[in-house]
Amino acid sequence: MIEALLKGLLTGDIKSLSRSISIVENEATGYEELLTQLPNASHTKVVGITGPPGAGKSTLVNALINALLQQGKKVAIIAVDPSSPFNFGALLGDRIRMAQHFNSPHVYIRSLASRGALGGLSTKIIEVTDVVKAAGFDYLFIETVGVGQSEVDIAGIADTSIVVVVPEAGDEIQTMKAGLMEIANIFVVNKSDRPTADQFVKNLRLLAHTKMRDGWETPVIKTVATQEKGIDELIAAITKHQQQNEQQQRKAYLLAEKLYQLIQHRRMKNVSKAALLADVMKHLAAGDVNVYKLAQTYA
Ligand SMILES: Nc1nc2c(ncn2[C@@H]2O[C@H](COP(=O)(O)OP(=O)(O)OP(=O)(O)O)[C@@H](O)[C@H]2O)c(=O)[nH]1
Q1: Entry pTM
Q2: How far does residue 56's CA lie from ligand 1's centre (Å)?
Q3: What's the rounded mean pLDDT across residues 259-265?
Q4: Residues within 6 Å of ligand 1 by CB
Q5: With respect to CATH, is domain 39-266 assigned 3.40.50.300?
């Protein structure tokens, strides 16, 4: 059964993809078998999008989908639902805004419920991300609301993390949650149609400059998502970030982080992240790695 499903998944069959995700979400029969047989490599660009509620993430993702479809790309979106019922209405709203894409064969949208413990959440995102990566999409956007811990989790899964903010009074940048500043590979200042936008962008650029690391200065992109403005610049920034030199090193780090989460979730051996990183690097040197197979060696 898993073999047939996998075959469908690898050809990008949407039904197979949906069923595969459900198996992984529910840890149903065949769950481990499916994960360990996923291909090691994928060309999918995984992009995390996070930011405070109402910053315009869904509108922005919508605009990105439009632009990428015009370039002939295939795009998947995972929206991580905060489990709180308070957010449920907002998420329904998101789905409605994205509904214009529901019938396109080149777009796949899926919500992932974040029930259970935090560790559970990130493990499921890791696993579902890998399933989607097997289905041949050009881009996978993972959208999370930037409250609490989840945005930090996302940084360990995405190749590129985008933090969406809106123009506020200048000083607020200084108090921006330290975590968000750390994880951003790209800043988007959405709602740049607001009069305070230019000053805000200027301040944020200064701050990004002082936080430059690994030869990457976090670009600050102005967008007006409702008017689809700034979207091409954002896609160019994503492309540029994915082409930077550190990607190979980052890949090892991300894999080690994933491996750590998977081992925790499966309650396997107690092993340090440093040891896992060393193991991942050894395997990477010999070719690409299936992290689920590697996790089994720690059983
Ligand atoms: N003026 C202006 N409004 C925008 C822009 N982008 C989004 N909005 C509006 O801002 C509101 C929130 O947008 P969403 O896309 O729902 O924001 P979100 O970040 O997904 O919000 P949550 O679902 O609450 O997390 C909507 O009413 C949008 O129409 C923009 O660039 N300019």
Answers
A1: 0.84
A2: 3
A3: 85
A4: 51, 53-59, 90, 94, 145, 190-191, 193, 224-226
A5: yes
